[in-house]
Amino acid sequence: MVDSSFTEFKLDYPEIKNHGCINPLSKSISAEHYSWMIECYYWEDHEDVVLDLSLSLYSQFNRFNGFCEGFLVRSDGAPSSCRLKRSVLEIDEYTTGNYVRWSGDLCVKRNRLESRYVKNGVITLICGVIALPGNSIPVPARNIGDHLGSLLECPDGSDVSFVVGGETFRAHRAVLAARSSVFRAELFGCLAEATMQCITLHEIEPSTFKAMLRFMYTDRLSVDFDPESFSFSPTAQQLRHILAAADRYDIGRLKLMCAQKLWDMVSVETVATTLGYADMHGCPELKSRCLDFFMAGKNFKRIVVTEGYLWLMQRFPSVIDEIKARLETPIYV
């Protein structure tokens, strides 16, 4: 089975063009149980822009069979044909036996880079490692989420319960504390909840709390089956409520997952409400994309007649000011 791992680099082009990239950008990834450190350098050679990638494998190993790959992402979101040359990675007999390093350059003309690959001042570069099948012993896929999730179906061992909208949910203090700093402070700190066996929560719906609780055990975002839509997929309104709960309980990964799904579902009808939630619950990436959506084509004229925009004007005047600042001509509301 082929194992691969890729990561995304975002380069501030105006900054590195004017001041250079003094310190390389770096990220860690893993492939076939090995840990890699990827560093990205930027420099210019006459009319060419050079993106230099360096990959270092620091894990103990006997042999790694695979290759590295990197490519730019065009401004329309499609991968470019400008790719690093693939390189087979094997242990170097002259190394200490647990270290190998590979580097490669991606060269592109400056005018081509600026016209095709710079979007909103940012260059996007994808880089990763692909491990080819070898003589390793097959390891089953991770299933800790399934095992922890089964704890929710069985009350045995639970040591705390929550009453939400008349429904009772049993849970385990240690699991909640490991997943949320807010729950850790409430359940193991000096607050009253630390000594309570049953805690009543307000201003959150049972379905929202259930989805959040399920995520903390399984690391998966899911909701109960909806017979009307015949789907387990959350609606935009459900996602907004879960995002608000994730923000309230400091569950960052869940909040970002909701933000991504809300962006995938964005439309003229939903973007204003989603923008308000993004601003209220500290999702700058989602907020920025929603503002860009407002400005695209004729979207603004269609959005201002929606109920969501009226709600946005009433609740978030500062966001309306940001929209006005982005428009070339004033708007009157």
UniProtKB/TrEMBL annotation:
PANTHER family in the cross-refs: BTB/POZ AND MATH DOMAIN-CONTAINING PROTEIN 1, OS08G0523100 PROTEIN
InterPro entries on file: BACK_BPM_SPOP, BPM1-6, BTB/POZ_dom, SKP1/BTB/POZ_sf
Similarity-based family: Belongs to the Tdpoz family.
Listed pathway(s): Protein modification; protein ubiquitination
Record-given protein name: BTB domain-containing protein
PROSITE patterns noted in UniProt: BTB
Source organism per UniProt: Triticum aestivum (Wheat)
Domain BTB: 158-225
